[in-house]
Amino acid sequence: MMTDLYTKFIRGVRWNTFEAISYYALYSLHNIALFAILEPGVYGLSGTILSLLYLTVMITNIGFDQTIGPFFSYYSSSRDSFKHLFLYQLVIQMVLLGLSGTFLVGLLGSWFSTYQLISVGTGSVIVATVISEGVKRSTRTLMQVSFKNKATSLIEVTSMILYGSIVWSWYLLVGQITIPVLLSALLISSLAGLMSIGTLTMRWYQYLPAQASTRYTQSIRNRIIKSRLVSWAYGITQQLFSSNTIIPLIATHAGLQQAGTFTMINSLVSSITGIFNKIAGYPSLAALAHTKYQSIPVKQETFRFISTEIMNIMYSIGLFIAINRHTLITRQALKGASPDLIVPIYLYIGIILLEYAIIGYEKFYLNEEKPEYLVGMHIGIIAIACGIIMTGSSWGLTTILGTLACIRILSFVALAALSYRHWGIRPSLKVKPLYLIISALSALIFLLIAR
């Protein structure tokens, strides 16, 4: 079993690597070009709106995606179970997403009333995008856990190509890009991706047995609800360290021009961390989902080979950033911004990267239906962070971000110690030279092209 699972895991990692590199290469090029033609304030405004849009999708998810892995065996046991345990949740999600999207439109209209940005048409586009992105995200997670990585990868890359084609075709025809144009292009590409993922899901559904040997019970539904709520609470606390929170915070306290600079840096860093999440996050969730009811030694072995891949991806990302730090960060940050922002930018990058150091542990805890451990840890961390920041209310951006980075490091150490005590799992630090060689060659090629 372990050999077959490992083979599927590695195949998933490879396809997700193709998707991640292709998708985020296009995403980075798009944002670099967009940053070059838009005013910093407009670019910052677009980044703030998109951050709030995806934050809305995440909050409204209420732990749905996080529980797909742990309860995948029930969702996939039969077509009847799929309809009653998965599909009914998805329908409720659509309603909640519509309400949340409407609330977001009102919020944006209030916050940015001076820009006269939110018309009825633009508001409708935002609501529809929130619904489409939320549903697409959940169905894509289901297909990833089913090891349908090849199909989902091709769909994601095609959607990104469609989005970029719409935006830049408009620019060539009209000569300018506005925020409504960006939002409309996002909606079209999102709907196209949703239709493709939906078709893939329906084909997968047809191969499920009509009835399961053991029917779902109310206790299973109760477990799903409990796990969703606790996972949602964890996701909320996790957002303190995410760009979806930090960028709007910077926009509020430092202005849209500063937010524009951080949005540019975030697009580059998000490309790297997004690559990491796509390569390691979804395959890890899938591998752990298929060992949920196995023995502790099997789970330890599964975590070991997952951890090996995660750490080597982290090594590769670190090496890539180190070689291209001037091209990726310093040169972009100095464009139209104060040199005083350099240190906060590096701290911001550190906070974002540290978030992915615990991804293996995060998936393990979610799979074991123990997200309350993660929530408790984060609540303690947030209480400490808020206390320190409120005490030093006159602190600058550097001090605040530095404090958040230190707290994030301590949280990782505490989580690793707790996991070893309860399950005997620990990270594998084994180095795979091939990863570093590929990373170094890619970094050098990128460096030469960027010059």
Poorly predicted spans: none
- Give the terminus-to-terminus CA distance: 48 Å
Helix-strand string: HHHHHHHHHHHHHHHHH
What portion of residues belong to β-strands? under 5%
Structural class: mainly alpha
Shape summary: globular
What's the count of strands? Answer: 0
Largest sheet geometry: none
Helix content class = over 70%
Structurally, the number of domains stands at: 1
Radius of gyration: 22 Å
Q: What's the mean pLDDT score?
A: 80
Discrete helix count: 17
Description:
This protein is mainly α and 451 residues long. The chain has helices at 2-37, 40-61, 72-75, 79-111, 120-145, 149-174, 179-206, 218-238, 243-254, 256-289, 296-323, 325-334, 342-355, 359-367, 371-391, 397-423, 433-450. The termini are far apart. The mean pLDDT is 80.
In short:
It contains 17 helices and no strands. With 451 residues, the protein is mainly α.
Summarize the topology:
Blueprint: H1 2-37, H2 40-61, H3 72-75, H4 79-111, H5 120-145, H6 149-174, H7 179-206, H8 218-238, H9 243-254, H10 256-289, H11 296-323, H12 325-334, H13 342-355, H14 359-367, H15 371-391, H16 397-423, H17 433-450
Helix pairs in contact: 1-6, 1-10, 2-4, 2-5, 2-9, 2-10, 4-5, 5-7, 6-7, 8-15, 9-10, 10-11, 10-12, 10-13, 10-14, 11-17, 13-16, 15-16
